[in-house]
């Protein structure tokens, strides 16, 4: 080491400086705050850093994105270890709380219990468990099915019992709207609250009126899923706030944005033989280095940092 790093410079460089327990408290405080908590999906730890930098309240880790990233469809093929590992890497990269998609809990109630323990160990702030049958599928596709209320209550009960940090948020998702209708979905949500759910994920509601009806019927924090090209209208943060929702996820949005740009960019390189016309669409090296806090690592060891914007070719 060529220089002595101060504690403040080193803080958060190798893992977040906020403890898992403090992040869980922050998540709960956000849900109680009366302000809509906005949690974009991070397809990587780097994206989680950008989400924090732009000023969102939390980070979401999507099962659909995690599967797609592995080149797989979202049909329950991913494992608990893959989700805990990737979710943990993302949670570690940010000071914000991170909620992770735990699908159906990866099996029977005992597996749902083990899922909660593993996700707590990985430093996540909460997870959602859904009432779909195994194998599950994307909640905005037709042909999905749900387990009985009793089976989901057992799944949730096991998850709640396994929790060691009482601030770890257990979110129950009901997929029933698209199968049994809104009233049945609301009844299920009430049963899930009685089973110990802290937050209800109201999947695939159609329009603002349905979100409002859900809000009026259920007395715990509610989460809206603003995924694109699905069954729900894309409501604004203001609209969701106006009907009293507490949290919103944009689960696949950053992946769709990035993949759209990569698709266009690869086509241009293929047709033009160069990427030079694409530079304005790219994140600049200096912005990447800012997000990664390159300069602070350099202060830790001044042999590391050799980049200045002045010296860059573009
Ligand atoms: C929220 C979700 O569970 C996810 O895995 O991100 C998906 C999102 C999507 O496929 O658009 C879902 O709604 O089922
Ligand atoms: Mg999912």
Automatic annotation (TrEMBL):
Keyword Manganese attached: no
Entry's EC annotation: 4.1.3.30
One GO process term, biological-process aspect: propionate catabolic process, 2-methylcitrate cycle
Biological pathway: Organic acid metabolism; propanoate degradation
Essential cofactor(s): Mg(2+)
Domain of life: Bacteria
Gene Ontology molecular function, alphabetical: metal ion binding; methylisocitrate lyase activity
Keyword set, alphabetical order: Lyase, Magnesium, Metal-binding
UniProt xrefs under Pfam families: PEP_mutase
Record's catalysed reaction(s): (2S,3R)-3-hydroxybutane-1,2,3-tricarboxylate = pyruvate + succinate
PANTHER family linked: CARBOXYVINYL-CARBOXYPHOSPHONATE PHOSPHORYLMUTASE, CHLOROPLASTIC, PHOSPHOENOLPYRUVATE CARBOXYLASE
Family to which this protein belongs: Belongs to the isocitrate lyase/PEP mutase superfamily. Methylisocitrate lyase family.
Functional description taken from the UniProt entry: Catalyzes the thermodynamically favored C-C bond cleavage of (2R,3S)-2-methylisocitrate to yield pyruvate and succinate.
Name used for this protein in its record: Methylisocitrate lyase
Source organism per UniProt: Gordonia lacunae
Organism phylogeny: Bacteria, Bacillati, Actinomycetota, Actinomycetes, Mycobacteriales
């Amino acid at each position: 080491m060529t220089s002595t790093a101060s504690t403040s410079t080193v803080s958060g460089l190798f893992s977040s400086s906020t403890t898992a327990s403090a992040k869980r408290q922050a998540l709960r405080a956000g849900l109680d705050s009366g302000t809509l908590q906005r949690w974009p999906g991070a397809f990587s730890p780097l994206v989680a850093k950008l989400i924090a930098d732009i000023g969102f309240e939390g980070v979401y880790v999507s099962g659909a994105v995690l599967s797609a990233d592995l080149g797989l469809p979202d049909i329950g093929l991913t494992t608990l270890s893959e989700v805990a590992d990737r979710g943990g890497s993302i949670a570690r990269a940010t000071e914000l709380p991170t909620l992770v998609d735990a699908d159906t809990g990866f099996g029977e109630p005992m597996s749902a219990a083990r899922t909660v323990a593993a996700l707590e160990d990985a430093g996540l702030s909460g997870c959602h468990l859904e009432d779909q049958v195994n194998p599950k599928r994307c909640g905005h596709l037709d042909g999905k099915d749900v387990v009985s209320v009793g089976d989901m209550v057992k799944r949730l009960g096991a998850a709640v019992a396994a929790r060691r940090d009482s601030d770890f948020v257990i979110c129950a998702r009901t997929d029933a709207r698209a199968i049994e209708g809104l009233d049945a979905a609301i009844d299920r949500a009430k049963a899930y609250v009685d089973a110990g759910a802290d937050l209800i994920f109201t999947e695939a509601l159609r329009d603002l009126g349905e979100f409002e009806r859900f809000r009026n019927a259920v007395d715990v924090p509610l989460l809206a899923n603003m995924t694109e090209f699905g069954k729900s209208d894309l409501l604004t943060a203001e609209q969701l706030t106006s009907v009293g929702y507490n949290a919103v996820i944009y689960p696949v949005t950053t992946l769709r944005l990035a993949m759209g740009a990569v698709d266009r960019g690869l086509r241009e390189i293929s047709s033009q033989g160069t990427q030079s016309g694409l530079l304005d669409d790219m994140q600049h090296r200096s912005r990447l280095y800012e997000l990664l806090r390159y300069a602070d690592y350099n202060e830790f060891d001044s042999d590391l940092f050799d980049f200045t914007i002045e010296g860059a070719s573009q």
